[in-house]
Task: structure prediction
Amino acid sequence: MKRDYLPLLLIPVLAAASFPLVGSWSSWVTLSVAGLAMGLMIFIMASGLTLTFGLMDVLNFGHGAFIAVGAFVAASVMLALGAWMGADSLWLNLAAIGLAVLAAMAVSGALGLAFERVIVRPVYGQHLKQILVTTGGLIVAEQLLKVVWGPDQITLTRPAALRGAILLGDVAIEKYRLLAMAIGLAVFAALALTLARTRIGLLIRAGVENGEMVESLGYRIRRLFVGVFVVGSALAGLGGAMWGLYQETVTAAIGAQVIVLVFIVIIIGGLGSVGGCFVGALLVGLTANYIGFLAPKVALGSNILLMALILLWRPQGLYPVAKR
Amino acid sequence: MLKSLLSDDLPKSRWLALLLVAILIGLAVAPFLFPGAKSLNVAARICVFIVLAASFDLLLGYTGIVSFAHTMFFGIGAYGVAIALTRMGPGWDAVAVGVGAGLVLAIALAVLIGLFSLRLRTIFFAMITLAVASAFAILASQLSDLTGGEDGLNYRLPVALRPSFKLFEGFNGRLLDYYIVFFVSLALLLGMLRIVNSPFGSVLMAIRENPFRAEAIGYRTVVYRTLASCIAAAAAALAGALLALWSAQASPDTTLSFDIMVDILLMVVIGGMGTMYGAVVGAVLLVLAQNYLQALLGDRWLLWLGLAFILCVYFFPTGIVGRLRRR
Result:
């Protein structure tokens, strides 16, 4: 199969085109790093959603609930480990964040399993009901969050070692953004390797292309799907935890806020495509930051505009998945 | 007479008929039966939300498309009237200009979104409308010069609608305002009933059941879906205008927020998709629940309604009205 590199080129083109508009070298680098970090966080949250859609034609409008749960669990763990978070050692800080993130992934993964069983399973293949019932799940989950954590927002402070910025010449780069980029790239690499090099990845890719054929070869695509759904939910939890720490506040509405960006990203990328999701996420992150700097009032509108332009160019998204 | 008024779509169940008559009479004499500012406010909101839910049902229940941008059109209607009354002063000309501008903008946006995404699948439309609606809500709170930002707009209603105005003894401007809301809502509801029971409505239902076949018979599904979303958008904008004309304020929270969208979804699904009467029952139930059940079920009443929503989608896809009609 011929590789299609054209969409990848969009990222450097976008970055280069915005350079003369931003004007100064140092703010351009800062904005680009911020954009990439934001894009990678969105990618983490969006990847599971796009895969479950590709594999089983299920679009989970309740995905935002996993993001919110991840953020809340992580916030609770970090508040409980206050001593480690406040310590002056980078390793203790990272350990606290690591534990918080693991807890967030575990809880949202478990929630994903329950969600799949109770909410999604009875409505396979019926899009209208899927949209309705997963939205219902989102309503219930958001209310449950308020029951457990109370209606108020939780304020988080980043640990000392991750506060502030690193200065490279006259370019300031926030440390937390570097961490977010590292985690995001690691997740992308792990996903890409799993999909490209392992047997499970082969089955998932085959399932996205043609599920019936995979089943007739004797593989249980249902079980595969549950696995992907749970991993996707856990990743949403991871993304939510990181997003909460990035914003330094966690509210029950966090899922609803981010899910809009997530949807834009998977539409841009082409529903079902992980590579497209990656490119789309970076484009959305960069656009949001450049436009946020140049014309703050239209920042969110800019993502809609980006989506409209890309859909005009490729109506099925950047990397359309074959069967659709 | 009754048959033609209801476009030959009779309730077809004694209990449903009784319920609808009770709602109609209750709303018609609400100012005298339940005196007090709060209950009048609840009654007016019920009227507005009946129109809003019915217009959403036209999309969801009859055409089978899910739009999350319905509050956007509602908000456009409300802000149209609000901005016109703020800018031009409290007169009927301002109301006319506001309603007109709101309608034009709502229909134009509906055409734009429809042509862009209705060719694709249901799920695309749902996601794109969600994105557009949230962008619009943010835009409305950002353009604070025009919309008053997060606080929204407070403005004065035309003289005839103020409490101090006396049409005759015992009938003040608020009552006149209520009856305008009531009768316009009733007319809009009957109008939508007419639309869904027309040949056009049958085509919409055919598209809902099987878009592929509908296309094969020779109906351009994109055109019909876009028309349906325009009609729904126009009705939602009118509902918004009524709300603005009633409450003398418009803010993102009361007209554009995702919470309102959730309310509409709950109304239509719990009341019953695919019947206009479902929207009526659902809207009455939910507005009453919002205003009076809070005391009964505690702060988390939405949790119970959310669970009811999920159960409805699984087990009673035709909602309350569907259950009543089966007896």
The radius of gyration of chain B is 19 Å. Residues 44-257 of chain B form one domain. The first strand of chain B starts at residue 153 and ends at 154. The mean pLDDT of chain B is 88.
